[in-house]
Amino acid sequence: MHHTRFRRLRSLIGWLGLTGGVLVCLLGLAAFAAPGSWAADNMSFFLRQFLAAGLAGLLGGLLGLTVPHRRPVLYKSFLRLYALLFAVLAGATVWRTVEHTRPVAAARPGETSLRIVATNLESLFLETRTLTDFLTKSEADVMVFEETSWWLQKRHWKNLGRPIGAVGEPPFPEHLFVGPLGDISVYSRFPILESKSIIVEEKPGQPRQDIREILVLKLDVEGRPVNLVAVHPSSPRSEVQWIRRQTYLERLEAVLKDLQSQSDTETIVIGDWNLSPWSAYFSNLFGGLNLHTAFSGGYPQTTRFFFDYRLHWVLGAVVDHVAVTPGLRFAQVRLGPDIGSDHLPLMADIVLPGGRKDKPAN
Asked: What's the half-sphere exposure (Cβ side, CA atoms, 13 Å) at 38?
């Protein structure tokens, strides 16, 4: 009796694994098959979770092979179909991961490198101890913050009797540029030669509710100009916000093309893109502009987590990215610790060939 129940349980696990696995594979494949759909494109944020669930379902399906079934041919055919779907999903995900990724390589003698840190503060005060401790340890040359809420930052500094911006006071470098919307701010150890903010509004006919900015700076890095573009489009939580993000990305593409047409100055693009590395829009944007990226540990890891940092591997998405033009390369890319925001800091050491100093890795 006990043996019969155990066999039925394994059969049930097998069928549930196959059914659930096929479902998650189809959800994941929707991101590749129908990227023009808001719902399908948003599935690209969760491909890691779908693959993990799909693998669990595949193991359950294989477990089901250890017991006889009333319709063994149907079961095995279903399992083969599932294995094919899983293989296609895994292959497509891997391809998108490596498509625009460059390997990291340490700076060689005679090359300049700069260290840049970017994170979404979620309105966290810039002089919060956990944040300043991290920034001090990071020894960053350039710091980019999104969701700065500059008006709120100024209120904190005034209440504390502190100078606005704490510019030049460790760990903050001596040069600062804040966008007029107060959403994005940039500190730099290197002089800022040029700076401007590009306001991205909705297209005609769209509700004017979520205006965003793109910051474009030119830095003097050891006597060499480098463009820095800081980004933070809308989060595509609804179809309207997804359309707003698309409008922002279209404007970003135009800005970067304009920079490329004006001069051969290399460009770094960094921030909270609210865009999955497996999205077709990520692939098209990077491919069209010949941008490259790299990931901490060599593969995409959670940069934005939900509810609790301890669950970031399960309940999280990869939305913060750094990209460079072909003349630059990555010496190191890594993620920082939990600083009290719902994002993890993104850190990158970027090499400019033919410079004068090397940045030692921490």
From this structure: 12
Q: Is residue 223 one of the residues assigned to a domain? A: yes
351, 330 Cβ separation under 8 angstroms? yes
For residue 258, count CB atoms less than 10 angstroms from its CB and return exposed for 0-12, middle for 13-18, buried for 19 or more.
Answer: exposed
In a domain, 106, yes or no: no
With respect to residue 107, please indicate whether it lies within any of the assigned structural domains: no
Distance CA(279)–CA(356), nearest Å, equals 38
CA–CA distance, 166 with 126 (Å, rounded to integer) = 9
Q: Give me the tens of pLDDT residue by residue for the chain, a chain 362 residues long.
A: 445 665 666 666 766 778 888 999 999 999 999 999 999 999 999 999 999 999 988 888 787 766 666 677 788 888 899 999 999 999 999 999 999 999 998 888 878 899 999 999 998 999 999 999 999 999 999 999 999 999 999 999 999 999 999 999 999 999 999 999 999 999 999 999 999 999 998 766 555 567 899 999 999 999 999 999 999 999 999 999 999 999 999 999 999 999 999 999 999 999 999 999 999 999 999 999 999 999 999 999 999 998 887 887 778 999 999 999 999 999 999 999 999 999 999 999 999 976 444 444 45
Strand pairing report for 112-120 and 142-146 = parallel
**Does residue 137 sit in the same domain as residue 203?**
yes
- Listed residues 99, 121, 136: the one ending a domain: 99
Q: What's the number of domains the chain is made of?
A: 2
Q: Do the Cβ atoms of 275 and 249 come closer than 8 Å?
A: yes
d(CA 329, CA 344): 22
Handedness of CA 270, 274, 279, 284 (dihedral sign): negative
Global pTM value: 0.91
**Domain end: 99, 131, 163, which one?**
99
Locus of tokens 């840190």? 117
Kindly state whether residue 191 falls inside one of the protein's structural domains: yes
Cα 49 from chain centroid?
16
The parent domain of residue 209 ranges over 112-352
